[in-house]
């Protein structure tokens, strides 16, 4: 919204026109140099005609003042090389790394973080006139914004909420570079390095958590197994023939293991029948 308002203000008819007032001496100097260029056209043509690429624009300055509010290009454009100078502005998306730096989090933990930023210049003339070195200024501002943003987060938040932190940094950078004609498109946290002592403490905590979960799972398994055994015992006690089937199943399992000695279990009911005959 802010960028749209700036562009709308620049397009008002009561603003300075493309041909800015250079004063009487300036007009006279431009007239004389233009006459010289026309007189020596075959000689000066190569210095007056310039080219910018499809991804570039040129901000032209005449006698030190911006000639046009809108940058020219791409393709050919004409300048008076006696009075005009121009600066090329690259409109492609620029990517740079924020150097790794130590940051103190909200819970007083020192971490080392680096990030990557993607930005581009959407208003070429403002990126030239509003700031001395837009690229260098954006890099320094990104470092400060990263430090200030992570300083308000705890270590747990930094490790688990990278996406939201990146979005917050991107919005803060974009609003700060908007007056320079720069749009920050994306910010990504690359790496977060913890101190060695903190890494050992977190590893011990994770190991203790895993052991506690393993013991809980083992206890739940034993409880379920005991319930199953009790249910099997109840079924066998209710149905005497079930134990005969269990004997046969045990015999099949033992015989499959290639044992040299096989013990056949004798049901107790058979012993009772022999006792009755005696």
Can you put this structure into words, describing what you see?
With 278 residues, the chain is an alpha+beta fold. It folds into 3 domains: 76 residues, no CATH class; 105 residues, Band 7 domain (Tetrahydropterin Synthase, Chain A, 2-Layer Sandwich); 38 residues, no CATH class. Helices cover 53% and strands 21% of the residues. The chain has 10 helices and 8 strands. The strands form 3 sheets. Strands 3-2-5 form a 3-stranded antiparallel beta sheet. Strands 6-7-8 form a 3-stranded antiparallel beta sheet. Strands 1-4 form a two-stranded antiparallel sheet. A hairpin with a 5-residue loop joins strand 6 and strand 7. Helix 2 crosses helix 3 and helix 5 crosses helix 7. The radius of gyration is 41 Å and the shape is elongated. It starts with a helix and ends with a helix. The N terminus is likely disordered. Belongs to the band 7/mec-2 family. Its main location: membrane. Pfam families: Band_7.
Please specify the SSE layout and strand pairing:
Layout: H1 2-10, H2 23-39, H3 41-48, E1 49-52, E2 56-62, E3 65-66, E4 75-78, E5 84-90, E6 94-104, E7 110-121, H4 124-129, H5 134-150, H6 155-160, H7 162-177, E8 182-193, H8 196-238, H9 241-255, H10 268-277
Helix pairs in contact: 2-3, 5-7
């Amino acid at each position: 919204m802010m960028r749209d308002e700036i562009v709308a203000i620049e397009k008002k008819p009561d603003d300075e026109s493309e041909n800015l007032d250079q004063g009487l001496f300036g007009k006279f100097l431009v007239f004389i140099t233009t006459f010289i260029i026309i007189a020596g056209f075959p000689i000066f043509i190569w210095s007056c005609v310039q080219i910018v690429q499809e991804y570039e624009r040129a901000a032209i300055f005449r006698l030190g003042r911006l000639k046009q509010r809108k940058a020219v290009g791409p393709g050919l454009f004409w300048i008076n090389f006696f009075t005009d100078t121009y600066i090329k502005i690259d409109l492609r998306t620029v990517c740079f790394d924020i150097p790794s730096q130590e940051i103190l989090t909200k819970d007083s933990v020192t971490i080392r973080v680096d990030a990557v930023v993607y930005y581009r210049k959407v208003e070429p003339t403002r990126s030239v006139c509003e700031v001395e070195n837009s690229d260098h200024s954006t890099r320094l501002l990104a470092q400060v914004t990263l430090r200030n943003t992570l300083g308000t987060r705890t270590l747990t938040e930094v490790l688990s909420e990278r996406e939201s932190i990146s979005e917050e940094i991107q919005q803060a950078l974009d609003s700060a570079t908007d007056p320079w004609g720069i749009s920050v498109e994306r910010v990504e946290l690359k790496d977060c390095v913890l101190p060695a002592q903190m890494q050992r403490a977190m590893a011990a905590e994770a190991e203790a958590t895993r052991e506690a979960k393993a013991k809980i799972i083992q206890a739940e398994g034993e409880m379920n197994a005991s319930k199953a055994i009790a249910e099997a015992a109840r079924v066998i006690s209710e149905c005497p023939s079930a134990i005969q089937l269990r004997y046969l199943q045990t015999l099949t399992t033992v015989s499959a293991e290639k044992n040299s000695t096989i013990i056949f279990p004798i049901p107790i009911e058979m012993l009772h029948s022999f006792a009755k005959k005696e």
